TrEMBL record:
Domain Disease resistance protein At4g27190-like leucine-rich repeats as annotated: residue spans: 498-645, 742-864, 865-965
Protein name as it appears in the record: Disease resistance protein At4g27190-like leucine-rich repeats domain-containing protein
Keyword vocabulary terms for this entry: Plant defense
A Pfam family: LRR_RPS2
KW Zinc-finger (keyword) present: no
């Protein structure tokens, strides 16, 4: 196996070097470009006699019997086929890959009788009994069942020449005892077999040629030697007999049953978890499945010193996750006295006794010479990372340091040891209650903060990312009695790119007013969140250091009044005007913010690269941009402003400006203004604006603003005495080409718009494709037909809390409509009139969602047909007794998603039309998802006797339907449904595995009898 692995790695690297394969973000994996894949498949198909079928479009290849007979390989990837050939006549066939997207493809018993030379068989996502002809494949060397369901794997024991058995992700509870006969087996892969509970005793010990065992997220119920139980399970000691074993991935919850130390000494690679509480994840990410390193997770509540096997693993491991037990005060040298010479990643967590990671008073050796990552989590008594001096070469390769929940740690680095961490690139310090500084000078009685301490500037040259979060007592990065700033004049970050500061309430200033030259000049991202006492973000001395800043986010800082602070003295200084790369600006919940920037800033910085601006919950902000900034926003793509209670204009008025100002936003595509109750205009002075690229416009809950006007006003800004007077300016002065590309409009509709705009919207927004109109809960307003008539290109329409003035007559106006959403329309009784001539209008409708329309009696009349409808959702429409007639649902040939909830009076989903008998059939060919919930009157999906078929249904939810004791009275077919979810409410519902020969009707009846108590059953029975 080792030779094969090395050969594969070599081939992959050769293909990468030739650009035929691409690097992937996960170690041990790669990607392939679609074009390369297609060319490779074509060559394999035409020249190498390999048959590849990726979809039902390739189904004609099955019928080419000569080609199949000559093939050496067949790969069927998730193609939809109703059946496979009864028998493959392929004497030259070496490998087969069969994958079923729907998990329902049956495999004929005799399929492999004509393919006895098969060496590799891969079956993916199949629910199967193994075909009996499998036992004929005596040349088979590799068998892989990937994410399959099978209750009986006994046939595998007859494949005597099998070398690799892979059962990744399959639903199996027990390995068959016959596997012990596979004496040539070299690889056993049981990853993600989460239901595997039993491996019979002595099965593993009999597989003498095993080289690799993988049990990640799988079996861990090892039996203790000498223990008698009803079911004899595998013992860890059986692994001692596997003298060829080089790769082992297992979890041993009981640390008292470790295998012999010699086993560990033979291992080349391993992932071993020892202790009861471990999982197969590193910080939320699954351990890499494809490239196995020497990984050890260790949780022992006793001394490690006497465990020979543990000592071997500690000396060789590269990734160590350690939860030290009682009596352990430090990692070096109580756990290991040699300094962990090969360790690359160290995680230490959840200890109440650890005081130091390194205590070098008694021992001196190079500590962690190749360590790249150190993570310390929940060490509540940790006092220092390093106690006393370190040997030269210690931590010389450390790139990342994480410290979290170390509530006794006052500082991270002693100033005398900084030289050992010269390669550090990332620092994350979070939730350490007493930490007062990151770097400190130690004295006899704790931290020294005299003015003459640390006179030399400390340049953290390699640090690229710094994250400080949840440090309530932090006074500064360095201990300094003379500074209130986080970063004082003694530190320099010449290459820092990312800075994240969160929940540091002592913080009043970020930057000292005398920083080291070039410090912070490469800052690219700055995120500040929940710093209660912080007054500003960028003082004047920082402004010229922002030339590389691209992403700025300020959130939940209650004291911030200004983001970019500019004083007149700074403006008068003779500096060359600079530009910033700022692209994304987010300001959220800054209740005292008065200015983002002032007009004086123009003399120092230009913001011509802004792409996205989001401003939310800045209650005292009266305007956003000074006119100088607004006129430079040539790259702005999107602007979002919401919940700013005092905002009156977007661009502030520049006093003394008499001429008309022209605003051009050539690239802005999205403009959203919401919950701005005092907003009056875009700019209060004389101006024009152009929005040639605007595609989406949202204006909601802006009661004082007039949205559009056709006539340019004369802007009388002063009265007869020369006093300034306010003028009601609209947001936009529009002509037919004002919004040439506007496709989406989200708007609050009111009576004033009815009276003022009329046909105006239909004329000037005639290219709209998406329209969402919202009324008010306390007053219903009609949408006029003159508005709707011009929207011939509309594809998506959503209407809430409104009604149409001519109900049922709009259908003919929406010939291109693909999505319709109607909610909170209490007057709505029908969507369109029965037998109207407008049915063609909805021929393209793909999604229909209707909610809280209490008077709606008929959703879909029998005369309507929706042949393109994919999604149908109905919620809280209490006037509906049924969803549709049997003839109507027959037209829903593309329906894939159907959800009905909260309709109190609905008795059945499909109702009879005329004399429907048992011979009639209703087929939902494409329906994959059916959700029925909170329907207290629902008795059945269909009360008639028709046959109902759901050939594609994979998901069924019936929840909160207490009167539903049967799904349908007629014949019912759901061949792909495996686990319907049933129950009286969501919390008490569960996925129910259908028993053999059980259909949904039986499951619903069983669920009803098990989950509704006797009194409820009797009540519903009496009502029926």
């Amino acid at each position: 196996m080792e030779e094969v692995r090395n050969r594969v790695y070599t081939l992959v690297e050769i293909l990468k070097d030739s650009s035929l394969l691409l690097e992937d973000y996960r170690s041990g994996t790669f990607k392939m470009h679609d074009v390369i894949r297609d060319v490779a498949i074509h060559i394999a198909d035409k020249e190498k006699k390999m048959l590849t079928i990726r979809s039902s479009d390739d189904s004609e290849k099955w019928s080419n019997m000569k080609k199949m007979k000559d093939s050496i390989g067949i790969a069927l990837f998730e193609a939809k086929f109703s059946e496979l050939p009864e028998r493959l006549e392929c004497p030259h066939l070496n490998f087969i890959i069969l994958g079923d997207k729907e998990n329902s493809l049956p495999i004929p018993n005799h399929i492999f009788e004509g393919a006895k030379n098969l060496k590799v068989l891969v079956l993916m996502r199949l629910s199967l009994p193994l075909p009996s002809s499998l036992s004929l494949l005596q040349n088979l060397q590799t068998l892989a069942l990937l994410e399959c369901e099978s209750e009986d794997l006994a046939l595998i024991g007859e494949l005597k020449n099998l070398k690799a058995l892979v059962l990744v992700g399959s639903e199996i509870k027990q390995l068959p005892i016959g596997i012990r006969q596979l004496t040539h087996l070299q690889l056993l892969d049981l990853r993600r077999c989460t239901e595997l509970e039993a491996i019979p005793s002595n099965v593993l010990s009999n597989l003498k040629n095993l080289e690799e065992i993988h049990m990640n997220q799988s079996f861990n119920q090892w039996q203790v030697d000498g223990e008698n139980t009803e079911r004899s399970n595998a013992r860890v000691s059986e692994l001692d007999n596997l003298l060829r074993l080089t790769t082992l991935c297992i979890h041993i919850p009981n640390p008292n049953i470790l295998p012999n130390a010699l086993l560990f000494d033979r291992l080349v690679r391993y992932e071993i978890l020892i202790g009861p509480d471990w999982d197969w994840y590193w910080d939320g990410n699954s351990l890499v499945e494809f490239e196995i390193s020497r990984t050890l997770k260790l949780n022992l509540d006793r001394s490690f010193q006497e465990e020979a096997g543990i000592k071997i693993l500690l000396k060789s491991c590269e990734y160590l996750d350690l939860a030290p037990g009682k009596g352990i005060k430090n990692i070096l040298y109580e756990v290991d006295m040699e300094g962990f010479p090969q360790l690359k990643h160290l995680y230490v967590r959840n200890s109440i006794e650890i005081q130091y990671i390194i205590d070098s008073i008694e021992f001196q050796c190079v500590a962690f010479p190749v360590l790249e990552l150190l993570s310390l989590v929940n060490l509540i008594n940790l006092e220092k990372i390093c106690h006393n001096q370190l040997a030269m070469g210690s931590f010389q390769n450390l790139r990342k340091l994480e410290v979290r929940k170390c509530d006794n740690l006052i500082f991270v680095f002693s100033s005398t040891l900084l030289g050992c961490f010269s390669q550090l690139q990332e620092i994350e310090i979070e939730n350490c209650k007493v930490m007062s500084a990151i770097v400190a000078k130690e004295g006899k009685h704790g931290i020294q903060v005299d003015d003459d301490i640390m006179m030399d500037i400390m340049d953290f040259t390699q640090i690229r990312s710094l994250n400080l979060e949840g440090l309530p007592n932090l006074m500064g990065f360095c201990s300094d009695a003379d500074s209130q700033a986080l970063f004082n004049k003694k530190v320099a970050f010449s290459n820092l790119e990312k800075l994240f500061i969160n929940r540091i309430n002592n913080l009043k200033m970020l930057w000292h007013n005398q920083l080291v030259p070039d410090s912070f000049c490469k800052l690219n991202q700055l995120h500040v969140d929940q710093c209660e006492n912080l007054m500003n973000i960028f003082p004047p001395n920082m402004l010229r250091r922002l030339q590389n800043l691209e992403d700025l986010q300020i959130r939940n800082c209650n004291s911030i009044e200004e983001v970019f602070e500019v004083k007149r003295a700074n403006v008068d200084e003779r500096y060359e005007k600079g530009s910033t790369q700022l692209r994304d600006l987010t300001l959220f919940n800054l209740p005292k913010l008065k200015h983002v920037w002032t007009s004086d800033l123009e003399a120092i910085l230009i913001f011509q690269n802004l792409r996205e601006v989001q401003v939310s919950k800045c209650e005292t902000l009266k305007s956003l941009f000074p006119i100088s900034v607004a006129k430079s926003l040539e790259q702005l793509d999107s602007l979002y402003i919401d919940n700013c209670g005092l905002m009156e204009e977007i661009v502030a008025l520049e006093e003394g400006l008499e001429t008309t100002t022209k605003f051009v936003f050539p690239r802005i595509t999205v403009l959203s203004l919401q919950s701005l109750p005092k907003l009056k205009c875009f700019y209060p002075g004389k101006h024009t604006s152009e929005w040639p690229s605007l595609k989406s416009l949202t204006i909601r809950t802006c009661e004082k603003v007039k949205i559009v006007s056709m006539n340019e006003l004369s802007f009388p800004n002063t009265d007869e005495l020369g006093h300034h007077v306010s003028v009601q300016h609209p947001l936009f002065f529009i002509e037919k080409d004002t919004f040439p590309n506007l496709k989406e409009l989200n708007l609050d509709w009111n009576e004033t718009m009815n009276q003022t705009y009329g046909r105006l919207f239909g004329e000037f927004f005639c290219k709209l494709e998406v329209l969402r109109l919202y009324g008010k809960d306390d007053k219903l307003i009609a949408v006029p037909s003159v508005f709707v008539e011009g929207l011939r290109y509309l594809k998506s329409l959503s209407v809430s809390n409104l009604f149409f003035d001519n109900e049922g007559q709009y259908a003919g106006m929406f010939e291109r409509l693909t999505k319709l959403n109607l909610s909170k329309m209490p007057k709505l009784m029908l969507l369109w009139k029965e037998n109207s001539q407008q049915g063609r209008a909805f021929q393209n409708l793909e999604s229909l969602e209707v909610s809280e329309c209490g008077r709606l009696k008929i959703l879909v009349p029998s005369s309507m047909h929706f042949r393109n409808l994919n999604i149908l959702s109905v919620r809280k429409c209490h006037g509906l007794i049924s969803l549709a007639t049997s003839s109507t649902v027959k037209s829903l040939v593309q329906l894939k998603y159907l959800t009905i909830s909260g309709c109190k009076r609905m008795i059945e989903i499909v109702t009879n039309e005329g004399e429907g008998e048992a011979g009639d059939e209703i087929c939902f060919n494409q329906l994959n998802y059916l959700w029925l919930s909170d329907l207290p009157s629902l008795r059945s999906f269909h009360l008639g006797n028709r046959t109902i078929k759901f050939p594609s249904l994979g998901y069924l939810r019936v929840i909160g339907c207490p009167e539903m004791k049967i799904f349908s009275n007629g014949v019912l077919s759901m061949p792909k449904l495996k686990r319907p979810r049933l129950g009286e409410n969501w919390e008490r519902s569960c996925n129910i595995k259908l028993l053999p020969e059980e259909d949904v009707n039986s499951a619903i009846k069983r669920n009803w009898e098990e989950n509704y108590d006797t009194c409820v059953q009797q009540l519903f029975t009496e009502k029926a």
